[in-house]
Design goal:
The complex is a heterodimer of chains A (150) and B (182).
Chain A: E1 2-5, E2 10-11, H1 13-23, H2 38-48, H3 57-66, H4 74-83, H5 88-94, H6 98-101, E3 104-105, E4 110-111, H7 112-123, H8 131-135
Antiparallel strand pairs in A: 3-4
Helix pairs in contact in A: 1-2
Chain B: E1 2-13, H1 22-34, E2 38-39, E3 43-59, E4 66-77, E5 84-93, E6 96-100, E7 107-110, E8 118-120, E9 126-130, E10 133-136, E11 142-151, E12 170-175
Parallel strand pairs in B: 7-12
Antiparallel strand pairs in B: 1-4, 2-3, 3-4, 5-6, 5-11, 6-7, 8-9, 9-10, 11-12
The chains are: A mainly alpha (150), B mainly beta (182).
Protein name (chain B): DNA-directed RNA polymerase subunit
Domain RNA polymerase III subunit Rpc25 (chain B): 83-159
Function (chain B): DNA-dependent RNA polymerase which catalyzes the transcription of DNA into RNA using the four ribonucleoside triphosphates as substrates.
Protein backbone atom coordinates (compact mmCIF):
# COMPACT_ATOMS: atom_id res chain seq x y z
CA UNK A 1 0.00 0.00 0.00
CA UNK A 2 1.39 3.37 -0.91
CA UNK A 3 0.04 6.75 0.15
CA UNK A 4 0.08 8.99 -2.89
CA UNK A 5 -1.44 12.00 -1.14
CA UNK A 6 -2.11 12.01 2.58
CA UNK A 7 -4.41 14.99 2.28
CA UNK A 8 -6.27 15.09 -1.00
CA UNK A 9 -8.83 17.61 0.23
CA UNK A 10 -10.93 18.22 3.32
CA UNK A 11 -14.60 17.38 3.58
CA UNK A 12 -17.22 19.20 5.61
CA UNK A 13 -19.53 17.11 7.76
CA UNK A 14 -22.30 17.88 5.29
CA UNK A 15 -20.39 16.30 2.40
CA UNK A 16 -19.70 13.12 4.35
CA UNK A 17 -23.33 13.02 5.44
CA UNK A 18 -24.56 13.41 1.85
CA UNK A 19 -22.14 10.75 0.67
CA UNK A 20 -23.35 8.25 3.24
CA UNK A 21 -26.96 9.15 2.56
CA UNK A 22 -26.46 8.61 -1.15
CA UNK A 23 -25.06 5.14 -0.39
CA UNK A 24 -28.23 4.31 1.52
CA UNK A 25 -27.56 5.04 5.18
CA UNK A 26 -30.57 5.99 7.28
CA UNK A 27 -31.19 6.71 10.94
CA UNK A 28 -33.03 3.43 11.26
CA UNK A 29 -30.46 0.94 12.61
CA UNK A 30 -32.01 -2.09 10.88
CA UNK A 31 -32.63 -0.40 7.57
CA UNK A 32 -29.11 0.14 6.36
CA UNK A 33 -27.66 -3.33 6.70
CA UNK A 34 -27.18 -4.24 3.05
CA UNK A 35 -25.75 -1.11 1.55
CA UNK A 36 -23.70 0.41 4.35
CA UNK A 37 -21.34 -1.16 6.87
CA UNK A 38 -22.15 -0.87 10.61
CA UNK A 39 -19.17 1.40 11.20
CA UNK A 40 -20.42 3.78 8.50
CA UNK A 41 -23.83 3.67 10.19
CA UNK A 42 -22.26 4.85 13.43
CA UNK A 43 -20.62 7.78 11.66
CA UNK A 44 -23.95 8.61 10.03
CA UNK A 45 -25.77 8.52 13.39
CA UNK A 46 -23.20 10.84 14.89
CA UNK A 47 -23.35 13.34 12.02
CA UNK A 48 -27.12 13.38 11.92
CA UNK A 49 -27.17 14.68 15.48
CA UNK A 50 -24.89 17.62 14.67
CA UNK A 51 -25.67 20.82 12.83
CA UNK A 52 -24.73 19.25 9.52
CA UNK A 53 -28.01 17.45 8.98
CA UNK A 54 -30.00 20.58 8.19
CA UNK A 55 -27.34 22.34 6.16
CA UNK A 56 -27.41 22.85 2.43
CA UNK A 57 -24.61 23.59 0.00
CA UNK A 58 -26.23 26.93 -0.76
CA UNK A 59 -26.09 27.97 2.88
CA UNK A 60 -22.42 27.00 3.09
CA UNK A 61 -21.58 28.93 -0.10
CA UNK A 62 -23.34 31.97 1.24
CA UNK A 63 -21.53 31.73 4.56
CA UNK A 64 -18.15 31.47 2.81
CA UNK A 65 -18.94 34.48 0.64
CA UNK A 66 -20.07 36.62 3.53
CA UNK A 67 -17.27 35.79 5.90
CA UNK A 68 -14.61 37.01 3.45
CA UNK A 69 -14.23 40.25 5.32
CA UNK A 70 -13.17 38.52 8.54
CA UNK A 71 -10.16 36.97 6.79
CA UNK A 72 -10.47 33.61 8.47
CA UNK A 73 -8.15 30.73 7.73
CA UNK A 74 -9.55 27.77 5.80
CA UNK A 75 -9.36 25.50 8.84
CA UNK A 76 -11.25 28.06 10.94
CA UNK A 77 -14.03 28.36 8.36
CA UNK A 78 -14.30 24.56 8.21
CA UNK A 79 -14.51 24.33 11.97
CA UNK A 80 -17.21 26.99 12.14
CA UNK A 81 -19.27 25.25 9.44
CA UNK A 82 -18.98 21.91 11.21
CA UNK A 83 -19.57 23.14 14.71
CA UNK A 84 -22.03 25.99 14.15
CA UNK A 85 -21.04 28.03 17.23
CA UNK A 86 -24.01 29.99 18.47
CA UNK A 87 -22.27 32.38 20.85
CA UNK A 88 -19.00 34.21 21.35
CA UNK A 89 -17.64 31.75 23.89
CA UNK A 90 -17.63 29.02 21.26
CA UNK A 91 -16.20 31.19 18.48
CA UNK A 92 -13.28 32.39 20.57
CA UNK A 93 -11.39 29.08 20.84
CA UNK A 94 -11.90 28.35 17.12
CA UNK A 95 -10.11 31.48 15.90
CA UNK A 96 -6.46 31.88 16.77
CA UNK A 97 -5.47 35.24 18.27
CA UNK A 98 -9.12 36.22 18.24
CA UNK A 99 -8.64 39.47 20.17
CA UNK A 100 -5.99 40.72 17.77
CA UNK A 101 -7.71 39.76 14.51
CA UNK A 102 -11.32 40.61 15.18
CA UNK A 103 -11.67 44.08 16.65
CA UNK A 104 -14.01 44.71 19.52
CA UNK A 105 -14.32 48.41 20.20
CA UNK A 106 -17.41 49.29 22.18
CA UNK A 107 -16.72 53.03 21.99
CA UNK A 108 -17.06 52.99 18.22
CA UNK A 109 -19.76 50.34 18.26
CA UNK A 110 -17.73 47.75 16.31
CA UNK A 111 -17.90 44.20 17.52
CA UNK A 112 -16.64 41.88 14.82
CA UNK A 113 -16.90 38.77 16.97
CA UNK A 114 -20.60 39.40 17.51
CA UNK A 115 -20.98 40.09 13.77
CA UNK A 116 -19.48 36.71 13.05
CA UNK A 117 -21.78 35.03 15.57
CA UNK A 118 -24.79 36.78 14.01
CA UNK A 119 -23.66 35.68 10.57
CA UNK A 120 -23.44 32.06 11.72
CA UNK A 121 -26.85 32.19 13.38
CA UNK A 122 -28.38 33.77 10.31
CA UNK A 123 -26.91 31.70 7.50
CA UNK A 124 -26.29 28.23 8.96
CA UNK A 125 -29.36 26.34 10.18
CA UNK A 126 -29.38 25.25 13.82
CA UNK A 127 -28.80 21.63 14.80
CA UNK A 128 -31.85 19.46 15.59
CA UNK A 129 -33.09 19.98 19.14
CA UNK A 130 -32.62 17.09 21.55
CA UNK A 131 -35.68 16.02 23.58
CA UNK A 132 -34.10 16.58 27.01
CA UNK A 133 -32.92 20.05 26.05
CA UNK A 134 -36.51 21.07 25.33
CA UNK A 135 -37.31 20.78 29.02
CA UNK A 136 -34.69 23.33 30.06
CA UNK A 137 -34.43 26.90 28.89
CA UNK A 138 -32.69 27.07 25.54
CA UNK A 139 -30.46 29.77 24.14
CA UNK A 140 -31.83 29.16 20.65
CA UNK A 141 -35.37 28.20 19.68
CA UNK A 142 -35.82 24.51 18.79
CA UNK A 143 -36.63 23.92 15.14
CA UNK A 144 -37.51 21.15 12.68
CA UNK A 145 -36.83 17.55 13.52
CA UNK A 146 -36.82 16.03 16.97
CA UNK A 147 -34.30 13.20 17.15
CA UNK A 148 -35.60 10.18 19.00
CA UNK A 149 -33.58 8.94 21.91
CA UNK A 150 -32.10 5.50 21.11
CA UNK B 1 -12.82 16.31 10.96
CA UNK B 2 -12.81 14.35 7.75
CA UNK B 3 -10.43 14.48 4.84
CA UNK B 4 -9.64 12.49 1.70
CA UNK B 5 -6.49 10.44 1.18
CA UNK B 6 -5.27 9.15 -2.16
CA UNK B 7 -3.98 5.59 -1.82
CA UNK B 8 -2.41 3.17 -4.28
CA UNK B 9 -2.59 -0.51 -3.46
CA UNK B 10 -1.76 -3.81 -5.17
CA UNK B 11 -4.92 -5.72 -4.51
CA UNK B 12 -5.18 -9.49 -4.99
CA UNK B 13 -8.72 -10.36 -5.95
CA UNK B 14 -9.63 -13.80 -4.59
CA UNK B 15 -10.98 -16.28 -7.16
CA UNK B 16 -14.44 -16.59 -5.61
CA UNK B 17 -15.13 -13.00 -6.64
CA UNK B 18 -14.21 -13.48 -10.30
CA UNK B 19 -17.81 -13.90 -11.46
CA UNK B 20 -18.80 -10.48 -10.06
CA UNK B 21 -18.55 -7.20 -12.00
CA UNK B 22 -15.00 -5.96 -11.58
CA UNK B 23 -15.76 -2.63 -9.94
CA UNK B 24 -18.06 -4.15 -7.33
CA UNK B 25 -15.63 -6.92 -6.50
CA UNK B 26 -12.71 -4.50 -6.11
CA UNK B 27 -14.80 -2.17 -3.97
CA UNK B 28 -15.84 -5.04 -1.73
CA UNK B 29 -12.25 -6.20 -1.31
CA UNK B 30 -11.08 -2.66 -0.50
CA UNK B 31 -13.84 -2.27 2.05
CA UNK B 32 -12.89 -5.56 3.65
CA UNK B 33 -9.28 -4.41 3.87
CA UNK B 34 -9.57 -0.75 4.86
CA UNK B 35 -12.99 0.05 6.34
CA UNK B 36 -12.98 0.88 10.06
CA UNK B 37 -9.22 0.36 10.25
CA UNK B 38 -6.64 2.85 11.42
CA UNK B 39 -3.80 3.73 9.03
CA UNK B 40 -0.82 5.20 10.80
CA UNK B 41 -0.52 9.00 10.34
CA UNK B 42 -3.59 9.02 8.11
CA UNK B 43 -6.36 8.33 10.61
CA UNK B 44 -9.40 6.10 10.83
CA UNK B 45 -10.80 5.01 7.48
CA UNK B 46 -14.51 5.79 7.31
CA UNK B 47 -15.41 4.90 3.77
CA UNK B 48 -14.19 4.39 0.19
CA UNK B 49 -14.90 7.68 -1.57
CA UNK B 50 -14.16 6.66 -5.16
CA UNK B 51 -11.87 4.49 -7.28
CA UNK B 52 -9.67 6.47 -9.66
CA UNK B 53 -7.82 3.88 -11.75
CA UNK B 54 -7.60 0.12 -11.96
CA UNK B 55 -4.61 -1.39 -13.73
CA UNK B 56 -3.18 -4.82 -14.20
CA UNK B 57 -5.20 -7.93 -13.63
CA UNK B 58 -2.13 -10.14 -13.86
CA UNK B 59 -2.25 -13.65 -12.51
CA UNK B 60 1.04 -14.55 -10.90
CA UNK B 61 2.32 -18.12 -11.19
CA UNK B 62 1.09 -20.44 -8.45
CA UNK B 63 -1.63 -18.01 -7.47
CA UNK B 64 -5.35 -18.26 -8.19
CA UNK B 65 -6.13 -14.59 -7.65
CA UNK B 66 -5.58 -11.77 -10.10
CA UNK B 67 -3.67 -8.76 -8.83
CA UNK B 68 -4.80 -5.23 -9.66
CA UNK B 69 -3.05 -1.95 -8.97
CA UNK B 70 -5.87 0.28 -7.70
CA UNK B 71 -5.67 4.01 -7.04
CA UNK B 72 -8.56 5.21 -4.87
CA UNK B 73 -9.59 7.82 -2.33
CA UNK B 74 -10.60 7.09 1.24
CA UNK B 75 -12.57 9.29 3.61
CA UNK B 76 -10.37 9.45 6.70
CA UNK B 77 -11.32 10.68 10.14
CA UNK B 78 -8.35 12.79 11.11
CA UNK B 79 -9.06 15.96 13.11
CA UNK B 80 -6.39 18.61 12.86
CA UNK B 81 -4.60 19.91 15.94
CA UNK B 82 -6.59 22.83 17.31
CA UNK B 83 -9.95 21.68 15.99
CA UNK B 84 -12.96 22.02 18.28
CA UNK B 85 -15.21 18.97 18.39
CA UNK B 86 -18.28 17.95 20.37
CA UNK B 87 -18.58 14.57 22.04
CA UNK B 88 -19.93 12.70 25.04
CA UNK B 89 -18.24 12.03 28.35
CA UNK B 90 -17.92 8.27 28.67
CA UNK B 91 -15.73 7.61 31.70
CA UNK B 92 -13.91 9.53 34.36
CA UNK B 93 -11.07 8.39 36.60
CA UNK B 94 -7.97 9.62 38.39
CA UNK B 95 -6.02 9.83 35.13
CA UNK B 96 -8.53 12.18 33.53
CA UNK B 97 -11.57 11.91 31.33
CA UNK B 98 -12.54 9.58 28.54
CA UNK B 99 -14.68 11.01 25.72
CA UNK B 100 -16.48 9.39 22.83
CA UNK B 101 -17.74 10.48 19.42
CA UNK B 102 -20.09 7.56 18.81
CA UNK B 103 -17.93 6.02 16.09
CA UNK B 104 -14.62 6.79 17.80
CA UNK B 105 -13.96 6.17 21.47
CA UNK B 106 -10.27 6.71 22.22
CA UNK B 107 -10.37 10.38 23.15
CA UNK B 108 -8.58 11.19 26.39
CA UNK B 109 -8.32 14.31 28.51
CA UNK B 110 -5.27 13.87 30.72
CA UNK B 111 -5.35 15.54 34.14
CA UNK B 112 -3.04 18.40 33.16
CA UNK B 113 -5.39 19.47 30.36
CA UNK B 114 -8.48 19.80 32.54
CA UNK B 115 -9.52 23.34 33.59
CA UNK B 116 -7.13 24.77 36.19
CA UNK B 117 -9.26 24.50 39.29
CA UNK B 118 -10.62 20.98 38.99
CA UNK B 119 -10.76 18.43 41.70
CA UNK B 120 -11.87 14.84 41.89
CA UNK B 121 -15.16 14.45 43.78
CA UNK B 122 -16.77 11.26 45.11
CA UNK B 123 -17.86 8.61 42.58
CA UNK B 124 -14.86 9.59 40.53
CA UNK B 125 -16.60 12.60 38.94
CA UNK B 126 -14.36 15.59 38.29
CA UNK B 127 -15.67 18.96 39.47
CA UNK B 128 -14.63 22.32 38.03
CA UNK B 129 -14.46 24.99 40.73
CA UNK B 130 -15.58 28.12 38.92
CA UNK B 131 -16.39 31.56 40.36
CA UNK B 132 -20.05 30.99 39.59
CA UNK B 133 -20.08 27.72 41.51
CA UNK B 134 -18.98 24.14 41.22
CA UNK B 135 -19.65 22.46 37.90
CA UNK B 136 -19.51 18.68 37.95
CA UNK B 137 -18.43 16.96 34.73
CA UNK B 138 -21.17 14.35 34.71
CA UNK B 139 -21.12 11.24 32.53
CA UNK B 140 -23.03 11.27 29.23
CA UNK B 141 -22.76 15.03 29.08
CA UNK B 142 -22.09 16.64 25.70
CA UNK B 143 -18.86 18.58 25.85
CA UNK B 144 -16.75 20.59 23.46
CA UNK B 145 -13.05 19.85 23.38
CA UNK B 146 -10.00 20.99 21.46
CA UNK B 147 -7.64 18.49 19.86
CA UNK B 148 -4.06 18.88 21.07
CA UNK B 149 -2.37 15.74 19.74
CA UNK B 150 -3.02 12.51 17.87
CA UNK B 151 -0.94 9.45 18.81
CA UNK B 152 -0.51 6.30 16.79
CA UNK B 153 1.12 3.93 19.25
CA UNK B 154 2.90 0.94 17.70
CA UNK B 155 1.27 -2.46 18.03
CA UNK B 156 2.48 -4.05 21.29
CA UNK B 157 4.36 -7.30 20.90
CA UNK B 158 3.10 -8.73 24.18
CA UNK B 159 0.00 -7.87 26.11
CA UNK B 160 -1.44 -8.95 29.48
CA UNK B 161 -4.46 -11.17 29.26
CA UNK B 162 -6.75 -8.67 30.95
CA UNK B 163 -5.27 -5.40 29.70
CA UNK B 164 -7.48 -2.94 27.83
CA UNK B 165 -7.79 -3.67 24.11
CA UNK B 166 -5.04 -1.96 22.19
CA UNK B 167 -6.09 1.34 20.61
CA UNK B 168 -4.14 2.15 17.43
CA UNK B 169 -5.21 5.81 17.36
CA UNK B 170 -5.49 8.02 20.42
CA UNK B 171 -6.58 11.63 20.45
CA UNK B 172 -5.41 13.78 23.37
CA UNK B 173 -7.70 16.75 23.90
CA UNK B 174 -8.24 19.60 26.32
CA UNK B 175 -11.59 20.27 27.89
CA UNK B 176 -14.22 22.93 27.28
CA UNK B 177 -17.54 23.43 28.98
CA UNK B 178 -20.88 22.81 27.30
CA UNK B 179 -22.62 26.00 28.30
CA UNK B 180 -21.12 29.40 27.66
CA UNK B 181 -20.26 31.31 30.80
CA UNK B 182 -19.92 34.96 29.91
Amino acid sequence: MKTLQANAGVLTNLEVLEFLRARGATSDPMGCLGAVAPSECKVFDHLVNTGACNQTRGAIDEFLKRCEKFKLAKAEKLNIINLRPSNQALIDPIIEYCEKRLTKDEARGIDEVQELVDLVLEVLPPPPAKPDEEMQALEETPTEKLMEEN
Amino acid sequence: MFCLSLIEHNLPLPPHLLNRPLLDAIKEELERLFLDKVISNLGLCISIYDIRTIEGGFVFPGDGSSTYKVVFRLIMFRPYVGEILCGKLKASDANGLHLSLGFFDDIKVPVHLLPLKSRMGEDGIWIWEHECGDLPMDLDEEVHFRVTKINYPPIPVEQDANANPFSPMEIIVSYFLKYALM
